[in-house]
Design brief:
The complex is a heterodimer of chains A (263) and B (239). Chain A has 11 helices and no strands. Chain A is mainly alpha-helical. Chain A has one domain. Chain B has 239 residues and is an alpha/beta fold. In chain B, strands 6-7-8-3-9-10 form a 6-stranded mixed sheet, sandwiched between helices. A 4-stranded antiparallel sheet of chain B has the order 2-1-4-5. The mean pLDDT of chain B is 90. In chain B, a hairpin with a 2-residue loop joins strand 9 and strand 10. Classes of the chains: A mainly alpha (263), B alpha/beta (239). At the A-B interface, helix 1 and helix 4 of A face strand 1, strand 2, helix 2 and helix 3 of B. Chain B: It comes from Paramylibacter kogurei.
Chain lengths: 263, 239
């Protein structure tokens, strides 16, 4: 029970912070909407999409990129959480968390859960706005998407946690944008399907295929049509476990192997 | 019940090539106020990081109320309250919300935490400011809140790492006095400082310099008839 007391408190705190930062909520929505309204309008004519699972008919480009934009929201949210972890560490509040008597893995997992919860609010708000633009999915898809978004959010949150454990200063975080967020997003199926990428470069296609973010998006894409993509789930869960273990190692108090008795 | 609330034995810790703690050993009797006196860079904050489990030392042992910190870290941390040098509370959340959050990190539900928070704030004469955002409080009040926060889970040991840094003389005195009084409730205090006017003759003291313990014992016994400020500078300047 005390585990859940801590979990709810961490989620509540993250939610209070999120509510207090209206600009964060707005930017989380504006970013994918620009892609949906502006980018997709321009690329609609340039990118012809053939029928492929989970689609059973030709679709417009706007429909294609919505799952990718859901993933984008979670990707940015994961990185935002990681940024706040680095900030917390610099400001000292991370110390509070880590001196709690609860196990460190649970506290860090709770932190990720809190980020996922916030990202779910953002994704469903985005899906609601997309519906206003006429981009809708089967009703069951919105239900199926929930557990899937939790999985993808956990994976991206764990990646953010891993990054925060390796970043020493807040200033270094700008590099994350260039070396993590952009490559992860553009080298995925968020904006174009794999077969389209293969036409341009088989190597890039292979890189996309090994990108965990690609599988998170495909998991979301299938779920939005009430379908299940087992392979994508395996990729996402495996990536989550790997990122989580690595980040726990990063936050391990015994990790500082510079400790040496010299005297 | 153990005679010593906190025992540190042969503790060493290094950052890369810098030796921050070197065979540090001392004991703090239960219910006493112990000043961890040392100039800047003596290793006080590093010692606090080890005592709170933030970092782990490969050498030496720490015992909290008879529980080994390495083997029973959770039990040990449950009994420790800590006020770090850096502020740890969220400025954009109310005092009460901050304390509720911290209580939850110790597994204390909101229902159980609320009376404890009211009590802790009242004792620091801060009850009427409980619903204010921390950002609206001055430095002295924020430090009081940090102390209230560290007491919410009713710890047996309170660690304070230079808690009066940056505060005016009057506020420093008032906080120092309040923390001394906590010993009457059986709480053991470890107070890191480099300001000798925060230490009373009846206090216990550990003098730390260059990561080594130079002196330990009751202040009046260790210093004798010397002036504490003079004695401290003699021991540490140029040593």
């Amino acid at each position: 029970m005390i585990y859940f007391t801590a979990l709810f408190a961490i989620v509540r705190r993250e939610l209070l912070r999120f509510v207090g930062q209206r600009s964060r909520f707005l930017s989380a929505l504006v970013r994918p909407l620009i892609w949906l309204v502006v980018f997709a309008a321009g690329f609609r004519a340039a990118l012809g999409l053939s029928i492929m699972p989970p689609y059973q008919t030709y679709i417009t480009y706007e429909v294609y990129i919505v799952p990718g934009l859901c993933g984008m929201i979670q990707l940015f949210n994961g990185m935002q959480s990681s940024l706040s972890l680095v900030y917390d560490r610099e400001m000292g509040s991370m110390r509070l968390l880590l001196t709690s008597p609860l196990p460190r893995w649970w506290l860090l997992l709770s932190k990720i859960f809190a980020g996922v919860f916030v990202s779910l609010l953002q994704v469903y708000a985005f899906l609601g706005i997309a519906a206003l633009f006429g981009i809708t999915f089967p009703p069951i898809g919105y239900v199926f998407a929930l557990p899937v978004l939790v999985c993808s959010g956990l994976m991206l949150g764990a990646l953010g946690l891993l990054l925060s454990s390796t970043i020493k200063q807040l200033e270094n975080f700008a590099g994350v944008m260039n070396f993590v967020i952009f490559p992860m997003f553009f080298l995925s199926t968020a904006l174009y399907p794999l077969w389209k990428m293969a036409e341009g470069s088989p190597l890039l296609r292979d890189i996309c295929a090994y990108n965990p973010f690609t599988h998170a998006i495909e998991l979301i894409r299938f779920a939005l049509y009430g379908q299940f993509n087992g392979m994508a789930l395996i990729w996402v869960v495996t990536s989550f476990v790997v990122f989580m273990i690595a980040s726990l190692w990063g936050y391990n108090p015994a990790k500082t192997m510079t400790n040496r008795k010299t005297g | 019940m153990s005679k010593y609330a906190l025992s540190v034995c042969d503790l060493s810790y290094s950052y890369a090539t810098k030796n921050a703690l070197n065979n540090v050993s001392f004991d703090i009797p239960t219910g006493s106020f112990c000043a961890l006196l040392g100039p800047n860079g003596a290793g006080k904050s590093t010692l606090f990081s080890v005592l709170t489990g933030l970092v782990r030392s490969p050498d030496g042992a720490v015992s909290v109320l008879g529980h080994d910190l390495a083997s029973y870290g959770r039990i040990a941390r449950k009994n420790i309250g800590v006020v770090f040098q850096q502020p740890t509370l969220d400025l954009d959340v109310s005092v009460r919300e901050n304390l509720l959050y911290f209580a939850a990190l110790h597994g204390i539900s909101r229902r159980r935490a609320k009376p404890r928070i009211t009590d802790a704030l009242d004792r620091l004469s801060m009850g009427e400011r409980a619903d204010e955002k921390l950002r609206n409080l001055n430095g002295g009040h924020r430090r009081r809140m940090e102390i209230a926060r560290a007491l919410v889970h009713e710890p047996s040991i309170l660690l304070l790492d230079e808690p009066t840094v940056g505060l005016d003389h009057e506020t420093r005195q008032s906080i120092t006095q309040y923390v001394h009084q906590l010993c009457d409730d059986g709480i053991t205090i470890l107070w890191a400082t480099h300001l000798v006017d925060e230490i009373y003759p009846a206090d216990q003291m550990v003098l730390l310099h260059h990561g080594q313990v130079l002196e330990t014992g009751q202040v009046s016994d260790v210093v004798g008839t010397n002036d504490l400020a003079h004695w401290f500078s003699q021991k540490t300047v140029g040593a």
